[in-house]
Amino acid sequence: MFEGLSERLGSVFDRLKKRGALSESDVSTAMREVRVALLEADVALPVVKSFIDRVRERAIGQEVIKSVTPGQMVVKIVHDELVATLGSDSQAVNLNAVAPVPILMVGLQGGGKTTTTAKLAKRLTERDRKKVLMASLDVTRPAAREQLRTLGEQVGVDTLPIVQGETALTIAKRAMTAGRLQGYDVVMLDTAGRTSIDEGLMAEARAVRDAVNPHEVLLVADALTGQDAVTTATNFDERVGITGIILTRVDGDSRGGAALSMRGVTGKPIKALGVGEKVGDLEDFHPERIAGRILG
Ligand code: GDP
Question: Domain AAA+ ATPase, which positions (predicted)?
Fold first, then answer.
């Protein structure tokens, strides 16, 4: 991720670092170039604007221009502001509640929701030593429920037995009851996805939310769709309310615009990154590490 941006910023900063002293106009020229690089990486315009304003304000400060290595100081400021843009207070998935902790997974069809549910369940089981139960609420697509069951077997996580003819709401309630009676720590509910924002789907997700009171509502969105992923997050947040985002297909995303825009546009933290098709391909989201990757 971020190959293009990293290359562009690298050449801007190499030039800046070669200069002994920096004038205000050197900083302004560099900021114009950084702005173009961010826009080319498909970062949302308001996020770019606020980023550039913050960097410029700090970079034309006297201590930078008068310092012995002004170029280095500008890079440091850009690094800090990238971390702030990504969400310096980003946390992991929060399980701090009475068991069984309900986690609702939402998103558009094809975004990687079911795969991510299994990836996260595997991680909670193996790393956090939690007993996890997964349930698919997709009553319209039998294949989706079957997919979750197969993934569950693959990662060694239980899935709620499938009963024909139930509604999403009934399945959710049955999952919570099973979670309580059978001593599960976490119940993950994989909601149905549609190919576009669909009010019926949203109403169903809201009904499930109201019935189980999820501790986390995680939106799974495809990083490759760039700003569409950000719009999807905003839509789900307005209609269902989300507590965090998991970006998928980050392995194929060379631009990184969705990752850099999410926090600024939605106000919600990215909690993990999907970095491949395999069930182990889930990474924690570390803004510091990502800023480091961007700046090379
Ligand atoms: P859903 O319809 O949202 O539940 O999507 P699925 O979980 O079925 O995923 C759709 C496709 O995306 C599958 O082929 C997954 O293997 C693939 N996929 C999911 N997450 C990732 C990821 O992080 N990287 C890559 N490369 N593929 C992914």
Answer: 99-247
